[in-house]
Structure formats: structure tokens, C-alpha cells
């Protein structure tokens, strides 16, 4: 489980770097997706149990199920969050298309007409 | 909690009293006429001008450090996100150690 | 009862896309407002257990005094905006009303829920609907405001999700009442608290998380600007209060006081030098929320009451000013302060009352909440009262700047303001004057909310013990 936590932290750093530092709008959206997926990885790995089984009840593993199964609640949270991230990414990409059509550039440093 | 109506009466009376004071002070005969200022135009004839009160807002804009605040709000997204990140780090540190 | 309010709003928003009749959306929002008023007169903690599952195993919705207060505010402002937009929005009205219903449903859902991940889901519904509403007009300013809002917004929401993940890892539960029983002072818990507060502070537009707000409000339609400055900020502050209440820390919190003072001063100073009317009002709203956050950080009863009362007054005043400016923009088509001008008498009276109330002149409602804030901050540190008075003076200065640019500039206007756009403005003006003369009306709504925040045992026993 430690490996997944370190992976999640590294992915979060990469995602935050992409969102904050990169100037292209599409790269910022990709960085946002990376950052959100790192949080999903963290959530799933929180519910992990050493040597656990998948949380699906069958006739075979009914005995001692709750003691051996991996926690299913974070998995449900991650499923919800993946759907939310999907819709936000779709909306962000469509706004990026509109930005390119109206402002003719994808460089966010040049899009600073509203300032002050 | 507090005497609301007496507070209201007091503040209202204060405003009206201040208004009367300003009115009477302003109505006194002043020794000077309406101030017009001379402008230097290298010897050319130029009429004396009357300064309007809008200059008040110009004076405010030049002081008070607003020029730096407007430069910080540069309109660039990367700068805004950097402020967000710095603010998040400051909030976490303040919650941990205060 | 609670689940019907949100389900009516969500169903009507989808019906709007299919049937394309405006009346569905306006009717749904008005119905939700009346249901909230009915719940106000019931005066007890209402609990809905979904599927019959007992907390902490199931999702539970709780309405105590604080949720009721914010819910009344949200549905009231949304219904006024829905009536106002019948004439203001001229094209693609169906999509506007769809997004408006979804946004109201999201705003209400954040307030009514008693489960932290459910709060995140409704927060995202609210955010996605508002991303669509900011980019509604599809011109240059709207697109620029929209992409700044969406990038900063999803960045902030991801921090809330990170905080929820850490909370679940430490305590193993997601229910508010259950979390309040399992507080530990370990560093991971505190980091999660800081992350979630930062995420909600983005929505409430506290400095330094406020950067999206002026740009987004400059691009969005004016009635949506009214909803952003009133309901979104109220929900952001509600999120912060609820999280602090869970953690049992409604007490002297230096982070909140520091950020509140900074927000108050910077918002007021920047509002003084703006040219665009909507941008100036956006900075003004940021400054008023700074007052609220500073006063909530004190943790005293007077502090909480004055903060909540100021949220109510800010909603009434900003709604009034935004819709008034919307009338001017509708007639003249210009948004900059040096190009606007009108000579309509009812609008002059209403906006004059709005500006005086924002500055805190008696006998209007702004005076009541500002006086309470001064008293609350005097007990803690007199320097804070001096700073609050300075910010109020600056508020009067830019309020007068708006009023004089519109009505004292000598420009004439052609055409009539539609009656249906003046109705919400007049309703809000009457409310401002009424609450100013009889402040007990506002205190009747606000005091149960403050009591609900301070007595968390009532909440916990109602949710877990019942």
C-alpha cells in the first residue's frame, strides 16, 4: 500500500505542476485530469487490506466475508467521482474549443483582457 | 441585546446635527472669492481654471498602494492558480500550528 | 419533505430541455421557496433517511436552523432571479432556465445534506451548472471568465475531494454527526480540515482564492451575477461553518480572522478603482464576505449572529444592486460606469436605498448588521473595529460612485423598463427597509441558525440517536 501512496503523491505533484505552470489551455485540462486521478488512486488504496478478496459475495466466500474483504465504500466514491470528473473535463474542453474560436489562441498568458 | 431605538435616534440626530453645522459654517461670508488657479503657459494668455472635485478620486488612485494590487490581478490564469496554491499552503500551515 | 424539493427542481430542469416551456422552471423554483417557508414554520430538526438505512451506514439529510436559513436565502434569491430573467434573457431561454434549476438544486443540496461526500457531489452539480451559466452569452468576455472559473474551480474542488479522502482514511465514516464524535487531533486530520476549508473558501471568494470572481461576474448575465454574489458566497461560508462545527472548533481561529481582514480591505480598495459596474459590485461582494469570515472566526455568539445576519443583508443588498444595474444595462446596453446614465425615478429610489444600506446608514438593514459586527469585533480587539470602519467608509465612497455615475451624470435614457424587471427590485427594496426598521424580523431567522451552530449535541443526538 505504501507504493500506491507514493505513486499517488507523485502523480498529484505532476498534476499540480501541469495546471499551474503550463500555459496551454489543453495542457492545463490534462493536468487537472491527472491530479483528480491521483486522488482516486489515493481513495482506493485507503480501503485496501493485505491479502484481501474482492468485495463480491458468492456462495464460496460467505464465511468470514467482512473480515477478509477489501472495503467497497471508497470504490463507490471513486466511481461517482470519475463520472463527475468526466463531465467537468468535457465541459472544460468544450470551453477551450470556444476560446480558440473566439480569441484565436490557446495561450492563457495572452488571454488577459479582463484584469485589474 | 442593546437599545436599538435609542441608538438609531442618537445616530440620526448626530447626522442631522452635523448637517446643520456644515450648513451654517458654509454659509458664512468668506473673505476669498471662488478660487481659480493660474496655469503657467510660457507667457501666453490663458483663462484661470476652476478645479473640479473629481480630482479627489485621482488622488485616491495614486495613493494607498492600489497600483500594486491592480498589477497583481494581472488577468493571467497561471498567476491566479499560483496564488491559490500559496493560499492553500498558508491555510494548512495555520491550521496545523495555531 | 426535503427530498421532494430537490427532486422537483432536478426533474423540472430536465423537463425544460424537452418541453421548452419557461413556466415549468419558474413554477418549480417558486414551489421550492414556498416549501422552505413551510418548513420554517415547523421549527424542528427534520431528518430524511434514504432507503431507511440508519446513519452512519446510510446517507441522511438533516435540516437544522442553519440549513433552513441558507436554504430560504437561496430559494428566495433564485425565485426573484427567475422572475427577473423572463425579460432580461432574450435568446436560448430554455437552456438558461435548465441551468438555473440545476444550480438551485445544487445550492440547496449542499445545505440540506448531512453526509460529507454527498455534499461534495452536490457541490459539483452546482459548479457544473454555474460553469455553463458563466459562459452563457458566448462572447469574448464570457468565454474568458468561464475558462478562468472552470480551471480554478475544478482545482479547488479536487482539494475538497483530497480532504474527504484523508478524513475517511483517519475516521472511517462520512456522516457529519459521526465525524463530530470521532475527532482526533492528529496532523492528518488537521491537514484534511485545512484542505476542505480551502476548497470551500474558493467558492466563498476569500482572498487569495477569489481571483476567478471578478472576471467571471464580468462575463456572466447580470441576474446570474446576483446569484453568484449572494447564494454561492453564502454556500461557501456555510461549508466552512459546517466543517468547523463538525470539528467542534467554533472558537478563536486566527486563520479565519486574518483572511477575513485581508479580504475586507483588499476587496474594498480594489472596488474603488473599477470602471465596469459589474466588476465593481463583484469586488464589493468579496469585501462584504470578508466581514462575515472575520466575524465568524471569533466564535462568540454575538460574532456568529452578526456574521449570519450580514450574509442575509448582503444577499438582499447585492441582489437589489445587481438587478438594478441589470435594468440599466438592459436599456442602455453599456456596462462601463462612465457611459451609463438614466433618469428613471423608481429605480433611483431603489438603488439609492441599496447604496445607503450597503454603506451602513440607519434606518436600513446594513446599519444593523454593521453595528453588530463593530460590537463583536470591539470585544476581541479594537484595531479590528477601526479596520472595519475604514472599510465601511470606502464602501460608502464606491457606492456613491455607482449612484452618481448612473443617476447624477445628466444623461437621459430612452425606453421603459419592463414592469416585470422592476418587481424583484421593489420587493428587495421593501425588504431592506422593513428589516432596517424592525430588525427583529431578521433576528427571528438568524438566531435559530446561530444556536444550531453552537449547540452541536442537539444535531448529533437527532441524527444518531433517533
Can you summarize this structure?
With 116 residues, chain A is mainly α. Chain A is 66% helix and 0% strand.
Features of the shown structure:
B: 98 residues, 60% helix, flat, C: 466 residues, mainly alpha
- The count of β-strands of chain C is 2
Query: Cα-atom Rg of chain A, whole angstroms?
Result: 20 Å
Number of helices of chain A: 4
Global mean pLDDT of chain C: 88
Return the structural class of chain A: mainly alpha
Give the spatial strand order of the biggest sheet of chain C: 1-2
Count, helices of chain C: 19
Q: Please estimate the helix content of chain A.
A: 55-70%
Unreliable runs of chain A: none
Specify the structural class of chain C. Answer: mainly alpha
Strand residue percentage of chain A = under 5%
Overall helicity of chain C: over 70%
Main sheet specs of chain C: 2 strands, antiparallel
Radius of gyration of chain C from the CA trace?
A: 21 Å
Can you put this structure into words, describing what you see?
The complex is a heterotrimer of chains A (116), B (98) and C (466). In chain A, helix 2 (25-46) packs antiparallel against helix 4. Chain A has helices at residues 2-21, 25-46, 65-68, 73-103. Chain A is an all-alpha fold. The model of chain A has no long low-confidence stretch (mean pLDDT 90). Chain A is built from four helices and no strands. Chain B is mainly alpha-helical and 98 residues long. In chain B, 60% of the residues lie in helices and 0% in strands. Chain B is built from four helices and no strands. The longest helix of chain B has 23 residues, at 4-26. Chain B is flat. The model of chain B has no long low-confidence stretch (mean pLDDT 71). Chain C is mainly α. Helices cover 78% and strands 2% of the residues of chain C. The model of chain C has no long low-confidence stretch (mean pLDDT 88). Chain C starts with a helix and ends with a helix. In chain C, strands 1-2 form a two-stranded antiparallel ribbon. Chain C has helices at 2-19, 22-42, 65-88, 93-112, 116-134, 140-171, 176-181, 187-204, 212-219, 222-246, 254-271, 277-296, 301-332, 345-359, 365-380, 382-407, 419-437, 440-454, 456-465; strands at 46-49, 60-63. Chain C has 19 helices and two strands. In chain C, helix 1 (2-19) runs antiparallel to helix 4 (93-112), helix 3 runs parallel beside helix 13 and helix 12 runs antiparallel to helix 13 (301-332). Chain B binds chain C through residues 2, 4, 7-8, 11-12, 57, 60-61, 64-66, 69-70, 73, 75, 77, 79-81, 83-84, 86-88, 91-92, 94-96, 98, and chain C through 147-148, 151-152, 155-156, 159, 187, 190-191, 193-195, 197-198, 201-202, 207-209, 211-212, 214-215, 253-255, 258-259, 266, 269-270, 272-273, 362-363, 367-368, 371, 375, 397, 401, 439.
